Amino acid sequence: MTDIVSHRGGALLWPENSRVAFENTAKLAVAQVEFDVHFSADRRLVVIHDATLDRTTDGTGPVVAQTWADLSKLVLRGTGGQRMLLLEEVIALFRPTSIGLRIEIKPGPGRVPYPGLPQRVMAALCEHGMLERCVITSFQLGTVCEAVSFATPRTHAWLVTPDLQTDLGLPGVCAAALARGVPMLGLRSNRLDAAAVAAVRGAGLEIGGWACNDAAMIRRMFDLQVAGFTTDRPDLALQLRP
Ligand code: MG
Predict the structure, then answer these.
(1) Near ion ligand 1, which residues have CB within 5 Å?
(2) DSSP conformational letter for 214
(3) Is-contact 77 56, C-beta < 8 A?
C-alpha cells in the first residue's frame, strides 16, 4: 500500500509547517506528516522549511542566527498570529494519532550541515518514544547516515534532486545509497516513472516520490505502487486513493 504523506502539513491547503496545518493534517487518514527541522542559535529544534526566515515569517535572516526566545516572537505568514513550532511540539500534536512523522533534517545557510543536528533530532525521538513511528530523510546522504548511526528509526530515505539524478544517473545514485546502507530513495515525481521504479527496485532499494501535487501525478504514484509520496494536497490524494 502506498503511503500518503502530508508535505509540510499540506502546504497548498494551509500555511506550511504551522500549527493550523498540523492540526488539520492530524484529522486526515494519511500515513505520515512531513516537516523540516533546523537549529536555532541556542540549538533548539525548530520546524521550518527554509534556512532563512524571510519567506514564511515576518522575520528576516537565517533561522540559526536567532535564539528560540526571539524566533518564538515571530509570526508565520498566513496563520493570523501563530508562531513556528519546536520538534517536541509537533511530536505532541501527532503522538495521540496514528500518523507517522517523516522528518527532513535540513542544512543551514549555504547548504552547510548543522554540526550535531542529526544526533539531536534522534535523541529527541528516543526521549519521546517516537523512533518506530519516524522516517528520517535528507537531500544530504551524509546527514541521513549520521542520523541513523545514533538510533534506528522505522526507516530512512535519501531524497534525490533531479540534477543529481541526471549527473550521477540512477545506477550511480543506487550504488551510493547501497554503499551507505540507505534502504530507500525519494525521487522528484516528474523524474519517477516505470523505468525508474524498475531500476531502483532492481538494485534492491525502495522508492518514493516527492512534489506530487496534481491529480495526474498522484494517480501515477498509486499506479506505480511506490512506497509513499509527499503531497501538498493530502485531501486530493485521499480522494484519489484506489
Ligand atoms: Mg521537506
Answers:
(1) 36, 104
(2) S
(3) yes
Q: How far is the CA of 115 from the centre of ligand 1 (A)?
A: 19
Residue 49 lies in a domain: no
How many angstroms is it from 233 CA to the middle of ligand 1? 14
Q: Using CA atoms, how far apart are residues 52 and 56, in angstroms rounded to an integer?
A: 9
Question: How remote is the CA of residue 239 from the centroid of ligand 1, in Å?
Answer: 23
Number of domains present in the structure of the chain: 1
* Terminal Cα-to-Cα distance of the chain (whole angstroms): 10
Q: Print pLDDT tens along the chain (242 aa).
A: 999 999 999 999 999 999 999 999 999 999 999 999 999 999 999 999 999 999 999 999 999 999 999 999 999 999 999 999 999 999 999 999 999 999 999 999 999 999 999 999 999 999 999 999 999 999 999 999 999 999 999 999 999 999 999 999 999 999 999 999 999 999 999 999 999 999 999 999 999 999 999 999 999 999 999 999 999 999 999 999 99
Q: How far is the CA of 139 from the centre of ligand 1 (A)?
A: 9
CA of 105 to the centre of ligand 1 (A): 8
Q: What's the 34 CA to ligand 1 centre distance in angstroms?
A: 6
Question: Residue 65 falls within a domain, yes or no?
Answer: no
Domain limits for position 196: 3-37+87-240
Which residues on neighbouring strands pair with residue 45, listed in sequence order?
39
The verdict on residue 42 lying in a domain is no
Our separate counts of H helices and E strands in the chain read 9, 10
Tell me how far the alpha carbon of residue 200 lies from the centroid of ligand 1, in angstroms: 22
What is the CB-side half-sphere exposure of residue 124 using CA atoms within 13 A?
24
Residue 227 located in a structural domain:
yes
